[in-house]
Amino acid sequence: MDLGKNLNDAFNYAQKLFSDFTRLVILLVLSIIPIVDLIMVGYAGQVAKESPEGNELPILKDYGNLFIQGLMMALVAIVYMIVPIILLGIGFFSVYFFFIFGPAILGISLILGIIGFVILFLVSIFAFMGTVHMLKQNNFGKAFAFSEINAIIKKVGWGNYILWVIVVYVLITILFVILAFIPWIGWLISFIISPAVAVFIYRSAASVYAEGHGYVAPSPPVTPPSAPSAPVPPPPPPEPTTKQTKIFCGNCGTANPTDKRFCYKCGKELTKA
Fold first, then answer.
1. Are 132 and 161 in contact (CB under 8 A)?
2. pLDDT grade, residue 171 (50/70/90)?
């Protein structure tokens, strides 16, 4: 897998969202309304469905279908993330019992946090491809078809795929965590780019999925070479534009008809050229 080519394609694709101001504003408005924001999630899923074959962003329509699609994606994420979230939650809230159990609780909290983050990363490996697999097959159960997901990842290459997951996490961290520290406008920038980031991730994930399925981008049509043409014969020599109707006597210069043998004036024999 060419990671650079994958990310560059996803970036160029996602930035098209900023060329349609109306669509971007609608997605931003949808993303701040609880429950309704699943439509925006479903739109990102539609990007995965139509990628990498399509090079244009999906049309924003059929909001009901997008909502159902976003709901399915959210349910997949909950199933995958429930265990690490519980561990991280216990590790975080256990700190509040410091005054009851003493310093030992801090060690337990740290261990649970580390385990939670490790499991979170591990389930993310399958969650990305599982979600795209579900979208492509239009079957909720395919999100948890681990043998099929493993076959897809194996074809891409586990090393390449894990590297892709790490890069995605790093980009998300840079775009949202670091931007949050910019005073006054950091949150606004994060908010504006959030739909584009979702489009970027699912475009990139769909390209990885397609490579695992052996998809090859169509090459531009090649015009076959034309057959050699037969040699053109040279044109016939031009016919004389005038026809000789008189013959002149070499002795006296008198003009005689061409059918005469002797000059009718001097009687000398006529010589034809």
1. no
2. confident
Give the pLDDT score at 220: 47
Residues 21 and 196: beta-carbon distance below 8 Å: no
Query: In sequence order, what are the beta bridge partners of 248?
Result: 255
The count of residues in the chain is 273
Q: Tens of pLDDT along 37-59?
A: 999 999 999 999 998 888 889 98
pTM, entire model: 0.69
Nearest to 196 by CA among 1, 2, 6, 13: 13
Distances (CA, A) of 42 to 74, 112, 122, 131, 240: 9, 33, 24, 12, 84
